[in-house]
Amino acid sequence: MSDYDDLAARIRALCAGETDEVALMATVACELHQSDARFDWTGFYRVVAPELLKIGPYQGGHGCLVIPFSRGVCGAAARLRAVQIVPDVEAFPGHIACSSSTRSEIVLPVFGAGGRLIGVLDIDSDRVDAFDQADADALAAILADVFGHL
């Protein structure tokens, strides 16, 4: 499990003063991905049109390029504006298999100022039941710190 306090401090220092969403996403994806062996794919999907996500900066193998809000775990996180913790992707109705190695995932909505939905952070693991509420809380705090003022 990550030391989220140390990770949050590193990310805060790296992102200080930056306002470009893509640059921030790239930095956060890199730091998160390298911080925890559970993280097999770590990246962002950006809101690019009403009800539509497109791949943003990520670490790991190829991701899906486009995800409508109506499909998959990422779509659910965007549509519901709520964290999705999926212990077993095989049991999630409508899961989009971007990678055959994914066994579980956590997806968090990314909000800017005023609750504007910027996108979602998607972290996949090759382990079943890799994520819990403590991960969700710590990751949400990091995202709010980095993106909440934009």
Task: Please provide a written account of the structure.
34% of the residues lie in helices and 27% in strands. It is built from 4 helices and 6 strands. The protein has a 6-stranded antiparallel sheet with strand order 3-2-1-6-5-4, with helices on both faces. Helix 1 (4-15) runs parallel beside helix 4. The radius of gyration is 14 Å and the shape is globular. The model has no long low-confidence stretch (mean pLDDT 95). InterPro entries: GAF (IPR003018), GAF-like_dom_sf (IPR029016). Residues 29-144 form the GAF domain.
Strand content: 25-35%
In sequence order, what are the helices and strands, one letter per element? HHEEEHEEEH
* Overall morphology: globular
Mean pLDDT: 95
State the separation between the terminal residues, measured CA to CA.
Answer: 29 Å
- Strand runs, count: 6
Tally of discrete structural domains: 1
Structural class by secondary-structure content: alpha+beta
Would you state the CATH class? Answer: Alpha Beta
Please name the CATH topology: Beta-Lactamase
Protein name: GAF domain-containing protein
Pfam family, one: GAF_2
Organism: Paracoccus hibiscisoli
Please describe the structure with a list of short key phrases separated by commas or semicolons.
4 helices; alpha+beta; 150 residues; Beta-Lactamase; 6 strands
What topology emerges from the helices and strands here?
Elements: H1 4-15, H2 21-35, E1 41-49, E2 52-59, E3 66-68, H3 72-80, E4 84-86, E5 104-111, E6 117-125, H4 133-147
Antiparallel strand pairs: 1-2, 1-6, 2-3, 4-5, 5-6
Helix pairs in contact: 1-2, 1-4
